Structures are given as C-alpha cells and as structure tokens.
Amino acid sequence: MTITRKNISLATALQCPRCGRLYDAGILQSYATCCQQPLITIYSGDLPDPSFLNGREHTIWRYREMLPVMDPWYIVSLGEGGTPLHRLSAVSQKLGVRVLLKDESMNPTGSFKARGISVAVSKALELGVNHCIMPSAGNAGGALSAYCAKAGIKATVIMPRHTPATLLEECRLHGAELILADGLIDRCGQIARQLVKETGAFDMSTLKEPYRLEGKKTMGYEIAEQLHWQLPDVIIYPTGGGTGLIGMWKAFREMQQLGWIGSKLPRMIIIQSQNCAPMVQYIKNGNLPEDFQAYPSKAYGLAVPQPFAKDMMREVIQQSDGKALTITEDEMEEGIREMATTEGILLSPEGSATYMGLKKLIEKDWVQEDEEVLLFNTGSWYKYR
Ligand SMILES: *Cc1c(COP(=O)(O)O)cnc(C)c1O
C-alpha cells in the first residue's frame, strides 16, 4: 500500500538568479555552480486573496504554500515567526517620523535565525539529510543546534573563539558538536568546507543552501500582513550575510505577483558595523578586495567580511533606491540605552544599529517627516552577556 500525501507547497524548481538556469528542487542542492550565486526557489500557481490566512497559526508556516516543504509531516517547528510589530510612539515623537520596530528577539532561540533554520532543517529532513554543518557567528549555530535536536539530525557548528559563552553553551546543551576557530566567520567557513569534504555532511552556510532564504523571507510576508498589506516607506536592516534583506525583497516581489500588495516598495537600507562593513565598500566602490580589512564587532551577526550574496544585496539596494551605511560600536551602546529608557525595549547591538542608522538618515534629510520607517531588532539582548 502506498500512502499518498498532499503537497502543500507551490515550489516548482530552483533557479540561478544570474543566467536563469533551472535546478531540480526534488534533490539536495547547494548553490548555483554555473554563476557562483545563491539558488532561488521559484513558485508557480495562484493563491486567493490573503484573507484565507485568517485563522491559521501565527508561525512562519501560515505561509506554507510559499515555502519549499512539500509534505507537512517534515515540518520542524518551535513556533518561529509571528513576532510583534511595535509602533514606537515616544521615539516617533522625538524624531518626527513614524517608527515601527519588528521585534525578532521573540523568536525561539532568541533571534530571527530561527525562521531560516526551521525551513532549512525541515527541507533537509524531507530530503533525507542526517548530518548538517554550519559556520556561525553565534545565533545561527544556536538555532541549528536546537532545530537539529528536534529533527533528530546531527549538527556540527564552527564558531569564532571570541563568541560570547552563552552562545557556545547553547549549542552544547542541544547536543551539537562545537568547534572553535581563531578568526572571524570566514575562517569558520573554511573549516566547514573541509569538514563537509571529509564527512559528506550537508553544508548549511548562509546562502550556500537555498532554504534559509525562504525562511527569512517570511519577515516580508509578516510585515505586509501586520500592516494590512501596506508596506512602510523605508526598511532598515542590520546586514551580515544578507539573507533577510534578499529574502524580504523576494517576498515583496512574490506578493506583487500574487496581487497581495501594490507596486510601491520600501527603500531598503543596509546597516553594518564600522568594524566590518564590506557592503558599504562594495556598493560605493564596486569591488571587495580579498584581503578586505575587518575586525570583530559586538554586533557579531554583522561581522561577515566576504558575504557570498554581495551581488544580490547590491541589486536590492539599487532596485529599491536604498543605501548602505555604518554605525560605530559606541553608537550601538548609546542606542541600546536610549531605546531601553524611552520605549522599554532591550535591543541587541544589531537592532540598536538600525535605530542609530535612522537618526543618521534623518540628519542627512534622507528620510522625510511623516514617512514610515521600520527598524529590526534581530536578536535578544540577553544573548550578548
Ligand atoms: C545573523 C544576524 C544578522 C544578520 O542577518 P543576515 O540576514 O544574515 O544579514 C543580524 N542580526 C543578528 C542578531 C543576527 O544573528
């Protein structure tokens, strides 16, 4: 007897964003080897007016038709997504623009990495993976460890030695194999690639695997739904590997196709730490030298010196008429204190960078009075001790 299961996803294939070559989504894939680009999931078919979402659970899986898992049996969920979108009234008053904050620290494992990892681990389980490897600056490794524990998949995480102790302990508690490396995330990536060769484990590095992007794109769907399908004028995003930035932009395009939102899209702003700002350099000068100088940042999620998806990020900035700018380590501290005392919210350094970035944009007249601006708190302050 064969059990027939319902296919809940409209995903049909993977595609190279550069040359359009199609890749089979029915087998394990990493990235578009034709053009050295991340692989993009494509969906076909129509969906009705989004009111059909009403009554579904408030996790990322409420958008399951636009996620890649075919059989719901394989979904590995800890309740990710459905995070609050706050209107910051005191800050709005002070700055003269309408400020929103998407608080991603409320996700399982304390960061928005949970969104991407939930989808990637679910899809890996569906495709028969039994061992995942990932280099991580902190939050992704914790999320991978938790979701792999739940899925019954072995996890190996490689982290910089200077990573805060809480994050290391989190991986160990979830039963992951933890390897510490000297240097930043790119050094961890080298070790990961070597281990993948030796063990045959599946590489879950940022955008070297297609589905973390799909998980992160749900932020785009959620923001649209929470704002009744009217997107803000500006989105300020603390950027490391760029999964969320590229993912949200993909979500906006998909929702336009579905007829859920109109033609006007937000201006997308990349915020990086002054200690490690490869995208600011890349967008300004059009090149990123291999020996690009980068230093650790307390915003460890942003310390990615050589992001694999730099071309796609630059396109988002160009297409959205956006910008890329930096914030110093001291400014991040200042932002944490200001938000804690004015709004009662504790920001991660990355989240604080988006707030301080907004203040800079206002100073330079790049955000107009009464525009609506969305900030991101991507991780929990409690994970930086
Ligand atoms: C990973 C991470 C980021 C960067 O996210 P990307 O989508 O990879 O650019 C920002 N903030 C925190 C807290 C993170 O963990």
TrEMBL record:
GO terms for molecular function: L-serine ammonia-lyase activity; pyridoxal phosphate binding; threonine deaminase activity; threonine synthase activity. It is an enzyme of class 4 (lyase). It comes from the Bacteria. Its EC number is 4.2.3.1. The modification N6-(pyridoxal phosphate)lysine is found at K113. One of its GO terms (biological process) is L-threonine catabolic process. Pathway: Amino-acid biosynthesis; L-threonine biosynthesis; L-threonine from L-aspartate: step 5/5. It catalyses: O-phospho-L-homoserine + H2O = L-threonine + phosphate. Its cofactor is pyridoxal 5'-phosphate. Residues 76-379 form the Tryptophan synthase beta chain-like PALP domain. Gene3D superfamilies: 3.40.50.1100. Keywords: Amino-acid biosynthesis, Lyase, Pyridoxal phosphate, Threonine biosynthesis. Belongs to the threonine synthase family. This is Threonine synthase.
